[in-house]
Amino acid sequence: MASNGAAAQEVIIVGAGPSGLAASACLSMRGVSSLVLERDDCVGSLWRKRAYDRLTLHLPKHASALPHAPHPAEAPNYLPRDDFVRYLDGYADRFGVRARLRREARAARFDAAEGRWHVAAVDLDTGDVERYVARYLVVATGKYDEKFVPEVPGLEGFPGKVVHASEYRTAEGMKGKSVLVVGCGNSGMEIALDLAEAGAITSIVVRSELHILTKWILNLGIMLRSYLPVLPIWMIDKLVLPTAMTSMHGNVVEFADGRRHPFDAIVFATGYRSAIKRWLQDGGDLIGDNGILKQCSPKAENGLYYAGLSGRGIFGSSMDAVFIADDISKKLLPQAQGQGKPEHNS
């Protein structure tokens, strides 16, 4: 225990999704212990509890494995949701990830005099506040923290079903119904397809220009990632949908171009908002409004690191975990110096 009664750790990791699990595993492989604090009652809660049934990983398995645990040869090239959940469970067990579940981080500050991070977390089962102190803090809560639904005048009076993409599971009961999907990211497109295949009369709306990539183009981008920072625009099919919801009147949605149309249900595939800045009192300014890290390196100041916030999916989480573990272990274990270079610039 630390002098103030806080539980002392070498590394505290906040979040037990793929990024947090990968960081803990990589640290363990280098002989560094860590403790993971997770708000939910399981690891990988986004995939287990907030993902629609037909979801598969959008990257092929060679680009969506966590460090030191490639997917088996017989696994599907694009893993279904349930297969990936089992993979995360097995990963946590294999590397002995120490996770305290139902612990929600409420405050994290750096004490310059001590050179330590002080983290306060609430046990959501008892309401008790637990305090931890560590030399290093890894923020791995992801950008999918709290669902975001835009304010639409009249939405509260809509008589039909309204759900966020995180609450959508299947199109059961939607056959023959008119359904509006708001948002055209991966989730919006797949949910719209799921509804259409189930016989729903499906419409999609998005406020701004949309770029559509085929799986072939996406895989090509993965192969070229070391050579091109972004894909040339000529490699991407471009679709413009210049309209947006402006208001609702009963079951009728009015759009920016003046059109009006009745709907039986609405699915908001409008993303999430990060809650990191609410509890991270030092270093949160590096997180943009979109929940993405403003810099390329996952390393901040004073022993603070960010895992999985680069906007590069599971592949980025793996790169971050390897870098973080390498960087921390070289400081804690000087004899590790010279055994390889980090994959990011500090």
TrEMBL record:
Key word Oxidoreductase present: yes
Family matches, as Gene3D superfamilies: FAD/NAD(P)-binding domain (3.50.50.60)
The UniProt record lists the keyword Oxidoreductase: yes
GO molecular function: flavin adenine dinucleotide binding; indole-3-pyruvate monooxygenase activity
EC number: 1.14.13.168
Pfam families in alphabetical order: Pyr_redox_3
Family annotation (InterPro entries): Auxin_biosynth/cation_transpt, FAD/NAD-bd_sf
Keywords: Monooxygenase, Oxidoreductase, Pyruvate
Catalytic activity: indole-3-pyruvate + NADPH + O2 + H(+) = (indol-3-yl)acetate + CO2 + NADP(+) + H2O
UniProt family annotation: Belongs to the FMO family.
Protein name: indole-3-pyruvate monooxygenase
Organism, scientific name: Dichanthelium oligosanthes
